[in-house]
Amino acid sequence: MGCSVAAMMATTSTGAYAAENPPPKQPLVRDLKTSGKSCGAGDGKAYVADPSPRIDAVLYDTGSGSLGGEFEFWWKDAEGAEQRRTLTTTSKWSGIPFTLRLPWEDLPANTVVSWHVRADDGTSKSPWSSAGDGSACEFVIDDVNPDEAVVSSPEYPEDVLWTDGVGVYGHFTMDSPSDDVVAYTYDFIGGPYGTVRPDAPGGAVTVPFLPLTAGPDRLTVRAIDRAGRSSGKTTYRFYVKSGRGPVAHWKLDDPAGATTAAAENGTAAEAGTGVTFGGPAPGGTALASTATLDGNGGYLTPGDPAVADPRKTFAVSGWARPARTDRTMTVAAQDAGDTTGFALGVDARGGEPVWTFTVGGARLTGGAPEAGEWAHLLGVYDAETGEAQLYVNGRAVGSKKEAAPGAAAGAFQIGRARNGQGYHGHWKGELGGIRVHDRVVVPNEAAELGHRKPSALAHWSLENATDGASPEQGDGAPLKLGTGASIHRGPTGSCIPDLDPDCADVPYALVGDGHLALDGEHGYAATERPVVDTSDSFSIGVVVRLADAEPTGPMTVLSQGGEHTDVFRVRYEPSTYAWQLIMPNADEPGATETVVAQLAMADGGEGQGHRIAVVYDDATDRIKLFLDGELADGATADFADGLPSTGPLQVGRAQVGDGWGEYLHGDVDEVHAFAGALKDDQINGLGWGTEPCLC
User: Which of 103, 414, 507, 659 is the most buried if burial means most Cβ atoms within 10 Å?
Assistant: First the structure.
């Protein structure tokens, strides 16, 4: 009886102790790491480069007390004998991570080292992390870098002058003799760069690369092994040719009366009824004339496919000027049996017409076709990415879309598209420069294809005047000087202030030997007729210096008039300390205006003034105001339709009500005018007394 009572008392006492101080929780494998890598064993073990790996663990008490960790490590040495080491830590609060660095210098490389941990609260210990459903952690110290990668490319062999070209993908294979390589880092000049991983350690990886520019290029590769060790650098040099020409090209600039369009590349295209040659061409391009299609039976076809396999990369492009935009019309297409494989043109089905490129179930749209206005269209299908892109006037519009073209390849069509047993979407208007490429036309090439080269219209250097007129540099129409306008001449090269004190007081000209001085009351200069066609793209530049530090009202430096108002005006607005470009939205009194501006303090007659340039790009429907070659925020805006001019170019005044006003008090020099939109990087060539490059 006594023994039974003693046993019961012992059991009760032990249970009470356990309830008051239960052992810590078993550490979880997910909370354990070796040198930042998750705990794993077997094929999942960690490979580390550090000869003294860092061990991380999180330990939890059953309550919220403090506890330490007991870590045990074991491995087999070179003789096969097991080695065991133990590390204990000081106490931390439950849930606070433990980090320790292994201190032993004899940790072997290329050997599996195992470890586990248990928590100790000073009274009791948790189970080992490897107990039950847990597992030991394993790691291997790798002290050898992988071998350098070997790189190859069938399209762009190393150090061969010159191969394939811009717009043609290369495929670059990276491999390493080391069987533990799990990744390769790579870097092409200018990009792309990144990291790729083989399907299995030691495997090879191939990456595609699309050359965007011609010239020498270089691929740099490093192999990375399981421990994160890097090989030495492999440098693979290759040389990219310029992009090859189109596989088919019809300028459509054949002589009037022709019945066939000659092919620059490919097969000549037979013209159906309703096609006439000798039509107008887009200015600033290599085209001398184009073909006009009547919108009924007009079309051209070579009778054969231009794209041999639409599932492969191709691009189709051309210049188009629709005579109407209220119906769907085709610039170019290719048959695919009784349907159309791809088509480029105008889509008017949504009410608002848009340019469109359809291919392989994808429909890409963008831009706003305008009757009587030229546009350059380019559709690209990239088989490598499986995506299509539409460009309008050299700029990508909308987003790329996935496409899946079929294999059928019928006859190429210009000006119509196949639909069932017949054709539809007949083009009405002009077409020219139809091209088909069997490669990607890259963005820089797209911009060049859609670029209309500006042409110089006039340049007044304002160095001198004869009989009240300052000559145009190219023997064009002069600027006639009104009352209050004069040519100021700077000091000549023979001026020696010590011998002639009067010449020392002569101010220098803004640019060169002279400039136009305006009195701010009646002074102006003007041509006899309009200089720039403001209904189309134009650019104009001027150098101007204000005589007043605090002008009392707006002053105009350049304007050109319509019937009822100036269709553009460049002026200084002192209330906002800004130069402004003002373009009305209609040629009528009180019309709403689009205004862009650049901030600048008035000159007060000091300094070299400002170089101001205006660009209207009819292709992109944008206006820009440059100040000293820079384009600031707020200096560009959408402007859909430029208004035609009937009045001459005015320097120093603007139309105000029924008369003239906003007379400029100051100096003006270097007035340049161009047909077409100058590129942003051409603006800096204005205002220095030389002709800017119009390349």
Answer: 414
Please give the Cα distance from 414 to 261 (Å, whole number): 11
Q: How many CB atoms lie within 10 A of CB 365?
A: 18
Using DSSP's 3-state secondary structure scheme, residue 217 falls into strand
| Nearest Cα residue to 345 out of 260, 269, 424, 265 | 424
Contact 156, 214 (CB under 8 A): no
Residue partners of 675: CB distance under 8 A and separation at least 6: 283, 284, 454, 455, 457, 532, 533, 536, 537, 538
The amino acid sitting at 197 is: R
Amino acid residing at 64: S
274 φ/ψ sector (left φ>0, alpha ψ -120 to 50, else beta): left
pLDDT value at residue 498: 59
Q: Which of 28, 21, 201 is nearest to 125 (CA)?
A: 21
* Rounded-to-integer distance, Cα 382 and Cα 443, Å: 13
Question: Rounded to a whole number, what is the largest CA-CA distance in the chain?
Answer: 142
Q: For 156, phi and psi rounded to 5 degrees? A: -130, 75
Distance CA 272, CA 73 (A): 87
Give the predicted TM-score (pTM) of the model.
Answer: 0.85
- CA–CA distance, 275 with 430 (Å, rounded to integer): 10
3 state SS of 454: coil
Can you say how many angstroms the Cα of residue 201 is from the centroid of all Cα atoms in its chain? 36
List, in sequence order, every beta strand (DSSP E) within 383-475.
Answer: 387-392, 395-402, 412-414, 417-419, 422-424, 428-437, 455-460, 469-470
Tell me the β-bridge partners of 540.
614, 673
**176's tokens:** 């390493």
Q: What are the beta bridge partners of residue 518?
A: 485, 666
pLDDT value of residue 658: 86
pLDDT per residue as tens digits for the range 163-175: 999 999 999 999 9
CB 146 within 8 A of CB 181: yes
Give CA–CA dist 126/582, Å, rounded: 81
State the CB neighbour count (10 A cutoff) for residue 41.
16
Secondary structure (DSSP) of 3-31: HHHHHHHHHHHHHHHHHHSPPPPPPPGGG
Please state, in angstroms and rounded to a whole number, the distance separating the CA atoms of residues 114 and 128: 13
Instruction: Collect the ranges in the chain with pLDDT lower than 50.
Output: 1-18
Residue 690's pLDDT is: 84
CA 652 to CA 663: how far, in whole Å? Answer: 6
Place of tokens 């190219």: 474
Written as six digits, the tokens of 433 are 């420069």
Task: Find tokens 């130069």 and name the residue.
Answer: 579
Our CA angle for 90, 95, 97, nearest 5°, is 60
State how far the Cα of 453 lies from the Cα of 77, in Å rounded to an integer.
Answer: 77
Q: Which two tokens stand for residue 501?
A: 């004190």
Please give the Cα distance from 311 to 316 (Å, whole number). Answer: 14
* Three-state DSSP state, 680: helix
Q: Exposed, middle or buried by CB within 10 Å (0-12, 13-18, 19+), for 290?
A: buried
Which pLDDT belongs to residue 693? 82
Distances, alpha carbon 286 to alpha carbons 23, 252, 453, in Å: 88, 12, 9
Residue 428 three-state SS: strand
CA 250 to chain centre: 30
Contact 67, 120 (CB under 8 A): yes
